């Protein structure tokens, strides 16, 4: 049989033609598309930023965060937790407004936190129990519904996303507290997030100290620092009382000294609700664990009253002119007048359904005779919830906190002092929420929700109980 003529072999097709949907080629294609989009967007971005070097930082920061997320999203979240308390002065410089919507690196961090939570859940969906999701679901749905009737849609969406980031922090905490060693490690990260604010205290005092001075450190308002410190002090005290015997003596002495410094910082904020919450926490510890702390609280409280700023701040509550103008009323009476005016203005059906997110501040010049043209916030999340998403929204939020509280109770069998400390953190928030705009204090909310999420995860473990060390 004659040999068949041989034809030259066809050239081998390139890999991207043989498998155009391969993972590596999709990633490369996505990066190329992102590069093209960024290239098109850069001139517009530069024109919008003008000559502001701080605002020009936003785009490179976004690219860095994207790379960090690709490298290790859990490590990225821990980095955010470690440094977020020190970033307010920097983030305020990067804020811009596009179409009336405030944007900046702070918003990028919020989106980053939410994205990390989604990634963690998709990777290991069974880590977080279903009841943790169901506890949040009614409240989050009501928040979304509250955006629809709002007169401030942009601000309503912003607040909705901020509260979603609290949920993301809570869920993310489950992935960092599955053993006692891991739980203690991430609680150390929470405590050391206060290192820069603690050091900046000296700068704040040097630059701004005068009569009536209130410490704010790296935060925008003294109250924000105060509420943040209620978490840090509680967690630092837990770490101190459960410090392993193998730790060196100087480490224990350092942590005691640092804890005292944090208490001094708290006193300098002049935030009374945070003082009360912290005192209640230490008082409950004295009743349940060590009665000597009741004596410490009594002596410390008496000494604190001798400090002019502390004593005067408490005495302000005894001076009042309820019928005068806003400058003649103490803060408690002013709040009561604001709340009474708000509830008196509401119609019966809005007590059930609410007026929409961010409408309290929108309508406050209308219903509050002492507003003076200022759009006042509610200064109480309970009043805010009733006004904006109705009694049903308030019940949904209280039910959420009740479910979180119940989720912490099994932690008593695993780590009694951790359970106590995190319940104190939760109760502290609910106390301070009576008189302050706690939903607007994002940094504080992130830290306490993350700590509670990690503790809720530890409650699911079966490890040996840690007991408080005797002083």
TrEMBL record:
Q: Where is the O-antigen ligase-related domain?
A: 258-398
Chief localisation class: membrane
By its UniProt entry, which Pfam families does this protein fall under? Wzy_C (PF04932)
InterPro entries in the record: O-antigen_ligase-rel_domated (IPR007016), WaaL-like (IPR051533)
The protein's UniProt keywords, in alphabetical order, are:
Membrane, Transmembrane, Transmembrane helix
Tell me the domain of life. Bacteria
Residue ranges crossing the lipid bilayer per the database entry: 25-46, 58-83, 103-121, 133-150, 156-177, 189-209, 221-240, 252-268, 274-289, 294-311, 381-402, 414-434, 446-465
Please give, as recorded in its UniProt entry, the membrane topology of this protein: Multi-pass membrane protein
What subcellular locations does the record give?
Membrane
The cross-references to PANTHER family, in alphabetical order and at most eight, read:
LIPOPOLYSACCHARIDE BIOSYNTHESIS PROTEIN PA4999-RELATED, TEICHURONIC ACID BIOSYNTHESIS PROTEIN TUAE
Q: Which named protein is this?
A: O-antigen ligase-related domain-containing protein
> Which species?
Duganella margarita
Q: What lineage, starting at the top, does this entry show?
A: Bacteria, Pseudomonadati, Pseudomonadota, Betaproteobacteria, Burkholderiales
């Amino acid at each position: 049989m004659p040999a068949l003529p041989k034809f030259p072999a066809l050239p081998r097709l390139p890999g991207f033609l043989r498998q155009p949907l391969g993972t590596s080629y999709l990633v490369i294609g996505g990066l190329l598309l992102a590069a093209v989009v960024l290239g098109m967007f850069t001139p517009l971005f530069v024109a919008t930023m003008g000559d502001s070097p701080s605002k020009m930082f936003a785009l490179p920061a976004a690219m860095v965060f994207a790379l960090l997320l690709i490298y290790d999203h859990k490590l990225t979240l821990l980095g955010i937790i470690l440094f977020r308390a020190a970033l307010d002065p920097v983030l305020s410089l990067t804020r811009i407004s596009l179409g009336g919507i405030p944007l900046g690196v702070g918003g990028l961090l919020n989106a980053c936190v939410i994205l990390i939570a989604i990634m963690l859940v998709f990777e290991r969906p069974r880590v977080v129990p279903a009841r943790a999701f169901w506890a949040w679901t009614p409240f989050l749905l009501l928040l979304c519904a509250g955006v629809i009737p709002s007169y401030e849609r942009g601000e309503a969406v912003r607040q909705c996303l901020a509260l979603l980031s609290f949920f993301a922090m809570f869920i993310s905490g489950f992935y960092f507290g599955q053993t006692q060693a891991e739980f203690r490690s991430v609680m150390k990260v929470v405590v050391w997030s206060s290192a820069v604010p603690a050091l900046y205290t000296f700068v704040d005092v040097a630059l701004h100290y005068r009569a009536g001075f209130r410490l704010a450190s790296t935060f925008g308002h003294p109250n924000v620092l105060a509420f943040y410190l209620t978490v840090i002090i509680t967690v630092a005290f837990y770490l101190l009382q459960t410090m392993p015997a193998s730790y060196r003596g100087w480490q224990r002495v350092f942590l005691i000294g640092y804890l005292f410094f944090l208490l001094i910082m708290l006193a300098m904020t002049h935030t009374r609700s945070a003082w009360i919450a912290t005192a209640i926490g230490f008082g409950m510890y004295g009743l349940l664990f060590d009665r000597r702390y009741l004596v410490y609280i009594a002596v410390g409280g008496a000494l604190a009253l001798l400090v002019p700023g502390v004593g005067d701040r408490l005495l302000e509550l005894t001076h009042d002119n309820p019928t005068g103008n806003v400058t003649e009323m103490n803060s408690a009476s002013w709040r009561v007048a604001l709340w009474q005016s708000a509830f008196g203005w509401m119609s019966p059906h809005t007590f059930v359904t609410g007026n929409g997110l961010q409408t309290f501040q929108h309508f406050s010049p209308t219903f509050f005779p002492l507003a003076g043209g200022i759009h006042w916030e509610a200064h109480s999340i309970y009043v805010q919830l009733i006004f904006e998403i109705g009694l049903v929204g308030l019940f949904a939020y209280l039910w959420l906190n009740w479910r979180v509280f119940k989720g912490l109770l099994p932690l008593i069998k695993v780590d009694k002092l951790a359970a106590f400390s995190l319940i104190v953190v939760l109760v502290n928030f609910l106390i301070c929420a009576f008189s302050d705009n706690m939903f607007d204090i994002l940094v504080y909310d992130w830290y306490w929700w993350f700590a509670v999420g990690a503790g809720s995860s530890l409650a699911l473990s079966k490890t040996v109980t840690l007991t408080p060390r005797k002083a």
